[in-house]
Design goal:
By secondary structure, this protein is an alpha+beta fold. It has one domain: Nucleoside Triphosphate Pyrophosphohydrolase, CATH 3.90.79.10. The protein is built from three helices and seven strands; from the N terminus they run ββββαβββαα. Strand 5 (about 60-75) and strand 6 (about 80-90) form a beta hairpin. The radius of gyration is 14 Å and the shape is globular.
Length: about 130
């Protein structure tokens, strides 16, 4: 039986149209790749609660304006990851790498040139057409 893991993902965009990405640390799958911030939904938690908690814990941002962006299903090592992706267009706080990860703001052009885990490619493709 395949385990399903629900993940809340924030595609955070600033007023300059740049996207916030984090580099996956050593010891994790896809180490060294870039990703959009977020994380697993905990038991009894809604997607929005998870999105807010993960962005606050990981990068010190509290989303204040966000909308559903897309759903992605990715199977990796007998696990089905459901990425519930949200476009975060306003937030409070200043980005900080609370978990020691590297953070950076990048343009859409730069985004296309970074290495991401496979599921994130669908997010980048959709960003290119909006």
């Amino acid at each position: 039986m395949i385990e399903t893991i629900q993940v809340a993902v924030g595609v955070v965009v600033n007023s300059a149209g740049e996207f916030l990405v984090a580099q996956r640390p050593e010891g994790k799958p896809f180490a060294g790749c870039w990703e959009f911030p977020g994380g697993k939904v905990e038991q009894g938690e809604s997607i929005l609660e998870a999105l807010i908690r993960e962005l606050e814990e990981e990068i010190n941002l509290t989303p204040t304006r966000f909308e559903p962006f897309m759903m992605i299903e990715q199977i990796v090592s007998n696990k089905c990851f459901l990425l519930d992706t949200w476009l975060v267009s306003a937030y409070s706080g200043t980005p900080n790498a609370n978990e020691g990860q590297v953070l950076k703001w990048v343009s859409l052009t730069e985004l296309k040139n970074l290495t991401f885990p496979p599921a994130n490619h669908q997010i980048i493709e959709k960003l290119c057409v909006i």
